[in-house]
Structure formats: C-alpha cells, structure tokens
Amino acid sequence: MTRSLVVLAAVGCFGLGACTPKKPATEAKLEAIAKEEQPEKLIRRGKTFASVGDYTRAEQYFVQAMEQGASPRVVMPWLLDACTADGRYRLAIKYAEEYLTKSPNDTGARFVLGALYSAVGESELAEKTLRRVVADAPNEADPHYALATLLRDVHHDSVGANTEFLTYLHLAPRGAHAPEARAALSGPSDGMPQRIGEP
61 is in which domain, residue-wise? Predict the structure, then answer.
C-alpha cells in the first residue's frame, strides 16, 4: 500500500475509533437518500419552491414525488399550478393530458385542461373539454362560467353563452363571477354591459 493510501485509510478510521466495514456506512447513506426521496418530503419541497416563485424547481420536485409513488391525484393540482404560474401552459397541458388518460373521471383536472386549451388558443379543444366537464359535473358552477365566456368571446354564440351564464347564476348567485354573468346577460344591443340588481 502506498503512503498516500495508508494516510487516507488512517484518516478514514480516525473518526470511527476503529476501521469498520464499509457496508453499514453505505446502507446508512442509502437510508438517508431514501428518506430524502420520500414522496411527502418531495411534495413539501415542491410547495416551498413554488411559494418563493421558483416554479421550475417546484415542478421537478412534484414530478419526482409522483415517480417515488405519490398519488398523481394529490400532486397534479400543485404541478399544474406551478406550470401555469410560470406561464408554461403547453407543459401543463402535456401533464394534464397524460394524467387524464389514466384518470379520465377527474373533472377538476379536466376543467383545468379546458381552461389551458382556451389560454393557448385551442378553442375547439377547449369547448369540447369544457362541455364534457359540465356534462360530468353539472352542479359545479365555474365550468359553466368558463364555457359561457368561451362561447361568447371566441365562438360568438350568444345563445349558448347565455344558457351557461344563467346556469352559473342558478348554481352560484353570489359567486365570484356573478356580477360579470349578470352584466353579460343584461348588456344592451350595443355590447355595453348594464348593471342590474341581484335577484
């Protein structure tokens, strides 16, 4: 054994009191790595990075959490939120589409996907997706409002839009979008909305 190797071996044994086999140390390191990669911890880290605006790092942790066994249903809202907050709509669409092939009954994720399609100008896909959401979850108000605005602003379908605005108001008369829905329904023919009182 050369002198440098002897020194390294001695230094390695110094802190342990005696030279011990390498296997326990390796196992301890593997256990530490495994703890670092527990899904719950990865999700917490992703949320932390998202909270300080580092959405790329947050996305990486959320994806890794799913790879380590976290439920996609739990992680997906956080993942999609991180991507959309960073303006990466196409990437969010990719994640949502992949997820929905395995969980087609998740209307929440499908609603987000419809909104994302609309945001990137995929109006036909947006309408098809939102129509499925309102069919599958007819008592959820926000999808009706999203579909109504799409029909009005993009497809210029005032009849269809008004139907969806009315449905929204029936489900959420004091909802966040209620003033806009009422204004859309009460607007005069010149297109300028008019305020009306609540029912």
Answer: 32-93
